[in-house]
Design brief:
This protein is of the alpha/beta class and about 240 residues long. Helices cover about 45% and strands about 15% of the residues. The chain is globular.
Amino acid sequence: MVGVEREFWQEQRLATVAIPLRRPCRREMLPDRWFATEAAKLVAVVEEIETITRTGRPILVGTRTIESSLKISSLLTAKGQNHRVLNGLQNEDEAAVVARAGELGAITIATNMAGRGTDIRLGGGVADLGGLYVIGVERHESRRVDRQLAGRAARQGDPGSCRFFISAEDLLIVQHGGSLHFQMRQAATQENELRGDFSIGVASAQRRAETAARENRRKLVAHDDWSQSLLKSLQRS
């Protein structure tokens, strides 16, 4: 729960405790890749999948929306790549699908909510290849969600890697990035992949989004307290 300790204490009067890792983390966080458009980004994601899958490593593609998962699935199908899609529409077998995401050569596309709480165990020989390769199709409004997605790789001391792909058309950039959207579009190459590193701007956008969400939660708690107080007052009258 890194980053929410103060809110837990201020709003709930709950202290937090950091629990140390059972085994050292071997996760490799690869540099983000940046694009002017969502279309160019998704093409690059599929190219990355094709490159990694040739090594035999299993791949987990994390998406924010069902729509995004279906777009990637369509592109992979056009390329003849076998894959599984897990986007909350397969409630009965989603845990089983996620559990198989660590098998040799597996390609799994999953939304954030799909298969949560299911540990991905590596298949035979996968650890020697580098472990599970996680692709984040965009940065999320909450950095906690990014960490959860990256944390699907390299569990329990296993090896693993994670890389995020970001476009100027992503929800985070459009709604919370200010002028970052225009800065990213101006930096595009002919292939729509961007020069430079926009990590500072993305981190600022995430902080603004988190602040807005935190304020909404504070208002909700205050309204709930007011409602409870009013209800008790009416009961006494």
